[in-house]
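Write out structure tokens for Transmembrane protein 79.
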Amino acid sequence: MVTKSEKDEKKYTREQRMVLNYRNMAFIFLFCFTMAGFCIPFPKLHLPTLLDRVVFTLRWLIVSLVTICTGVVVVGNTRFKTSAINPLDPEERKYAELPQRYLQNTLEQFTLHSFSLFALSTYLSEENMHWIPLLVALFVIARVVFFVGYFIEPIKRIPGFVLTFLPTLAVGGYCLYCMCVYGVQTPHSTGTESSWHPPPARH
């Protein structure tokens, strides 16, 4: 009699099982990262206005941009040191193909990442703005994992891809939820100053 696990082994190829294992590893890491973000008492940031929060996010995105600059440097260095220095020679493209694929994927992920963080900054309260640097740090870590895994073996890029794309997907989903529940115009976007003020203290 064939067991369920034996059926699963026959259902998936070796590469597909590796992808699932790497994906599960990334899920576990993301779960631990998210719990840390909720449980660790981060210092409170002083960002009372919407403009403050958007500028704060923009400045942190410079850190994420380092991953793209690194890709440009690696591609340029690879071309300089190999016969792929001529980008129009189809025979020599193989030397720079791997770093170019990293750069292309990072450009795509950075676009999604930056737009999602900008949208998130308009919905987060001042007390929760620590999620911006956390998500930026996660993006950089994920791109490093993607880069190293890609160069070791292309299939090992999966954890880095999941660690990059899933948080962006979660942030986009949260922003859509906020837009549906609170509307496009939120208490944090009615002006340069926050429209909410604490009630006066009782004496």
